[in-house]
Structures are given as structure tokens and as C-alpha cells.
Amino acid sequence: MGFWKSLFSGSDTTPSSKPTAVEGYIAEDENSLPTEAPRDPSLSSSAARSRSSSRIFFSTDRDIDLYELEELCDAVGWSRRPLRKVKKAIQHSFLVVTMWEQRGVQRRLIGFARATSDHAFNATLWDVVVHPDFQGKGFGKALMKHVIKKLRSEDISNITLFADPQVVNFYQNLGFMADPEGIKGMFWYPD
Amino acid sequence: MGFWKSLFSGSDTTPSSKPTAVEGYIAEDENSLPTEAPRDPSLSSSAARSRSSSRIFFSTDRDIDLYELEELCDAVGWSRRPLRKVKKAIQHSFLVVTMWEQRGVQRRLIGFARATSDHAFNATLWDVVVHPDFQGKGFGKALMKHVIKKLRSEDISNITLFADPQVVNFYQNLGFMADPEGIKGMFWYPD
């Protein structure tokens, strides 16, 4: 993330476009209803038992504990951002999706994504993040499929994002195209 | 624009990201106040007299005649979009900037740009267009400088856009970077 740090040195200007690599497969989500988490054969038997008793669900509720979100972003190594600005960004996003693991009455925030939009043609994804404990198991793919479904249901046809090099393949597998017809993603850099 | 046409075949889904090539220089704008248009030595003497009596100004007023905007977009060859969706997109954009030529009491829409944003960190530019009569004379640069200044005044630090290949240089000259640190602009493409 050296580019971002050098480009925006102020603490207020830490960027929000930092997709996190996730791959694999999860059962189709059920519109924010609880769904069985996929078994992971690499887990120990006790961990597998524990994991199998948890559920994963999605929400578009924006009443998010900002400290919990910050903890999630800390876990993937993002620079901290002022919570008042994070709150403002969430308020003014077109779509906010959170992904949760539920065990009994306990809920844990394990994924997040949001999109800005003109409500008509375009949406742009920002802050796509999955907790490292849940990466590589299909949760990121499930999160993104949920986001795409929500945007499509709002008649948004042009879904865009800016992907770090290491997650370009992840997004390509979801149907995103890099630089279609030579169209370039560009970032403003002050003189 | 073949990519767009093939990617989004429905009339409702014509894309809105079509920057138009403009280069050159114009005197600094004065916050939407009338400003003398630059003389163009290539104009005939009568045309130069006529042009010299016109003024260029910028506005952020969203009460735009949609048919006039459609005429501007027609002039650069963009596919038509449903005006109800254009209206909605303008309503839900964070910033809308129009560029006008004024001659006496007559005003002519000669440029347009808008940005979506989370009001905190990021803005993304869409529909940057300058009428062909005014391309190559610095008007596009002036429009973009006005847009950047407005976004910066709102504390937006990360200004992004998706540029067609033929306008990448134009935006680079304004301080935009293509694919910084390998970050890729990506577009969702349905399976």
C-alpha cells in the first residue's frame, strides 16, 4: 500500500479501495438469511465441529459498530481512518453489505463492502474486506455475489471497482473485466 | 464504443463513462463567473470577433435542460440514454458541473461532467464531455480543473475515473495516474 501512503499522506486521506484476496466457494446466500457455513477439511475435528455450528449471513443494515469495522480493517492491515469520515462514507454509500458469522447469540463481523452510485447507471465498489480467518474459503466470493445481486436488483448495470494486482484474478473469476477495450482506471495525483 | 454496446445491449444500460478528448489551455476559471474565452488564431477574423464577444462560465446548478444535455452528448456520438435515468443520475451525483458559452443573453451548453462520491474519501467522474466545437482549445482542461477544485474543496482526496485509451494522456496531463502500483480499473461483466 505504499502508493496510497505516499499519495495521500494525511490521516484523513487514507484510501478506501483495498480489496482483499479471497477465493473458493460458498453455498448460495439466502438474502441475508442464516446459511450453513461451508465445512473446511483443513480444520481439526474440534474446530470443524465448532465451525459447523456457526452460520454466515449478510446484512445491508448501516447501523454498524464502527469500532468493530475498524477491527476488521486492522486485521487485514489497512491504515486507520477517522471514524467520523468512515461514518459519513457509509451514510453516503448507495449500498453497504456486511457479512457475519453467528454462533449462538454471538455475531462477529467477518466481511464488508460498500458501493457509491448515481442510482441509475454506475456503481463503484470500495472497502471490500474479508477477515483473514475467512479468506480462501469462498466467503469473499459469496460476499461479492451478494453485492452484485443487490446492485443488479437496483437496476445498476455498470459495476466498477479498482483492484489491487493480487486480487485481479479473484474479480475476473466473478465476471469483472480489467481494462475492457483499453479503458484505464485513473487516480488523480496533485501536481 | 463497441465494448459498451456489446456489454450492455439494453437501451437502459448505455454507459455513462465516455470521456471526450480535449487539450490545450484556457485562462483560469473564476468560480463560475464569466470569463473571457481564449482567442483562437485559427479562426477567421469574423469568427474571431464573434468568439471574442462570448464568455465561458461554469455552473453547479443541476436544473439542466435534459434535451440540451442530450444534444451535447449527441454531438460527440454517445448512445442515447433514457432521460428519466439521466435525471436520476444527475440528482444522485455528488457534483455536477456544466460549462457554458454566453453570447449576449444566449447561453449554450458546451461541457458537462459529474461525479459520484461517498462524500468522505472517494469521487468517481462520469460523463465528461466537451462539445466538438470547443475541443482542442483548453476548454476540457478548464472544465476538469474546475471539477477537481470543487472536489478538493469538499475534502475529497481520491478522485478516480475510467478513461478511454485516446484520453489517457489528457488526464495524465491533469495529474491523473493510470494503474498506480498496478491497481486495475475493472468492470463487471455478467456470465
Automatic annotation (TrEMBL), chains A, B:
Gene3D superfamilies hit by this protein: 3.40.630.30
Keywords attached to this entry: Acyltransferase, Transferase
Coiled-coil region(s): none
Keyword Acyltransferase belongs to the record: yes
Boundaries of every N-acetyltransferase domain copy: 56-191
Keyword Acyltransferase: yes
Residue numbers spanned by region Disordered: 1-47
Biased amino acid composition, Polar residues: 8-19
Cited CDD domains: NAT_SF (cd04301)
Protein's name according to its UniProt entry: GNAT family N-acetyltransferase
